[in-house]
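Appendix B, record 7
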Amino acid sequence: QEQLVESGGGLVQAGGSLRLSCAASRRTFSSYAMGWFRQAPGKEREFVAGIKRGGDNTYYYDSVKGRFTISRDNAKNTVYLQMNSLKPEDTAVYYCAASLFWRPTMSPEDMHYWGKGTLVTVSS
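Structure tokens (predicted):
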């Protein structure tokens, strides 16, 4: 069982930046493709960004391309999401998740383990 713990959420003004982190509990972290998802109030959980096991391939939801960057440090069992030029519509609970399989457009159903989420609020 992989345990994932997100951190780094908070309140930020539009145009600002935040960096989310997700720490995994096991040394098998490098075996998983990782993804960031988000869920806004009243909306379904949606894919934000994904990264392959080795970090050599990434994929982004269209609305965050050019603003968000996903990265991972397998030595630290951690995946990151750097979020720049934040907009009020980015407000959501952000979750990291792990999958045994990789494909660019991961869906929530593809993921095997989930963190509990961290809240990001962007004020206008």
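Remarks on this record: The radius of gyration is 13 Å. The mean pLDDT is 95.
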